[in-house]
Write the structure tokens for this entry.
Amino acid sequence: MTQQHDQPPRFLTEPTALIAEVVLAIEPELSPAAVAEAIASTAKMKSHHRKLAEALSRDPELLTSGRPEGPVTIQKLVRALQAVGATRVVLPRCAHCGKQHRLPNLDGDQRICAYCQMKQAAAANPCVICGRTAHVANHDHLGRPRCVLHFDTGNQDPVDIVCDHAAAVDPGLARDEVADAVRATCQLPAHQRQLALALEENPRLLTGEGAHGPHKLILLIEDLLARGARNIVLPACPFCGTDRKLRHVLDCQRACRACYEKFRLLPCSRCGRTKPVATRTVDDQPLCHPCTRADPVNHEPCTSVRRNGDQRLCGRCFRPPTAVCADCGRTRPCYFAQSETPRCEACSNRMRPPQTCSRCGNERPVKARLPDGRPLCHSCIRVPVPCHICGKSKPLTGRGPNGEALCRVCYDKHPIARRHCVQCGVLERLYHHGLCTSCALDRQLTGLLGGPDGIVRPNLEPVFQCLHRGDPLSLLYWLREPVPQRLLAALAAEKAPVTHDLLDGLQHPVKAVRHLRAALAADGVLPARDERLAELERWLPRAVARIEDPSERQVVRGFATWHHLRRLRRDAEKRPVTLHQVVVVRREVKAAIQLIEWLRARSTSLGTCTQHDIDDWLATDIWVRYLARTFLVWSVRNRHAHSILIPIPPKDAAMVLIEQDQRWAHVRRLVKGDGIDTATRVAGLLLLLFAQPLSRTSRIRLDQVTCTESGVALTLGSHPTDLPPPLDSLVLELVHQRHGYSTLGRSDDHPWLFAGTVGGQPISSRQLMRKLTALGIKARPARNTTLMELPAVVVSRLLGLHINRAEKWPKEAGSTRADYAAELSRRKTFCKSQ
């Protein structure tokens, strides 16, 4: 709790362990369990344990010397230890009489018993009648002490005096009601005499000046007002003038809590802000409430990961017990769950009446208050203020050493935001409860994947290690969501090892399972597999299940399996299945299912339909229904249908292109790169200069980039291609940016030039297309235009296309090999003439 960031003293962080070590050093024959039980029975509050640990760390002989020094908990500890068999510890003796009594009082630094304290008080307060220094029996009406021989009975009952003053102010009040209120408020005769004396000195206390009277007077006024008093006035705060409860004393007057705290403001020794003092450090420096709560010394390990024994839960792990809310009737975590009126959090928030925000003037729930007590809504507590470092107006996150405002970015970089982790000791920006991000992640994962004993099973240990190797902060943010928490809890509930089949059977959102599977596969926990192909295999049974007739369902399943899946499985051994291939398969299977259902609605089937039925099928939705052609061709070939055919749809002869000026304008914009990320610039330039399709661009590997003497070369086809500047420097910059965007697993452990958001996977071609489309670059027209500009031999070597296919593009543009050869000849002739 010191202002410096050094290691705090041990009596603050581990008071119970320190006390146990001192006791066991004195009484080695005692068991640690018995000592721990004795220490726990000594005091319930941690502050008492800290004071006891501090005293014993300075002088362990306080337990054996019998000196009347130290806190009162020393004699409690000695009595508890003697009860469990301790023989060397000695009870302290009174500093005045030397007896081993209880020593609740202090005389300077020495502890004394209650009898000696009474004698000391009597000596300081002699009887006003005889002057004897005996026990003070009571005080007279003027507050002077009297002994038992001269007990002041008084000429009038103090209750009658209070009733007389109340009747003078409010004659309508019944005297019996006032007497009952006085006896209910002031049960002790001394308090009744104090109240009567205060009214004798100032009768106006009941008409608005009650702030100058005792606290019992305020309670009496509240009781009388509840009984129907009209002329009696509840006093307002004399400092702020507001009608609030006056429970504090300030300058010999009753004051509200806001004014009391206002006059107790001091600069906090840690954050520098002037706020009420919550506690003080070891060197007697003040600390405010937020700094006290944020101090790692005041944190304890949350027991939610153990789930047994006496739990001490943090605010994040604590959940109220579930009950039926008495207001809304829904079964939810409720406060007061054991009472007759449990209430959920939503209903509790609705019961708080909104107030007028002192800053914006709107009627909203109160989220915070200013130092003078004025309310603030949620929007106004996040008002942007100028940051002391960057100067930008942003919401306040923290303050510097001198109280200067800091935004989140600057506060995270400032040394004041760094603390020592209470578990590993590393100095960094802590995540919560005194833990760094790594230790907090370890505790979170242990709580989700561990069993009731807090131990992770061996079959889940690879999953734990895989997740722990990722970026801790990103994974902690991911674990805040309920879906990942339920996913990991479901894995912990399964007894079988983690496999692809186990993940496929989990009833959780596909996106969360996909990210976890990719991270495990990239880390080697699961074998690699083609996820697009596996997802298609899981989709097909669900798709064909909608066909009612079993024989027709078998036909469509055979078409999907033997025509499409067999080919995709064969191709997947050489290269991954592309998104376009999966889309084509899904479209054709859906078209086949729609055709079967349409024929069933016409009271026919695939085996009995005629060409006339197919022509009617093609009469509407021409483009969509032509997709069933592959299914019909396969069905006729395998004798599931007879003499029916869907013709090949006519293709649009017009090829979509862009103007050359527009193409080069896009190139210049990407070269300039104002506000465009490096990955988008590289993908766009490869498309516009080399006609590289986005499906191949997204899967470029790092080993395809080589540095030569002449520059940087990129292998796109059969031969490496020298990249022109500045594309070469952009590619090298992208190579050095090894950090990916995956939340799970290590984001820098991937072989791809374009990192994706899924662990171990590249960016998708669809995502690249979205980025280029946002810049006004359409991939298909741009690639068509580039292919027409490049010679066929260049296209073949550059992209790895067959020469016959590559020649179609120059022919489409009206250019041939002879034109290209003539152009090369003219270039050489021109160079020689130079």
Observations:
- The longest helix spans residues 550-572.
- The radius of gyration is 42 Å.
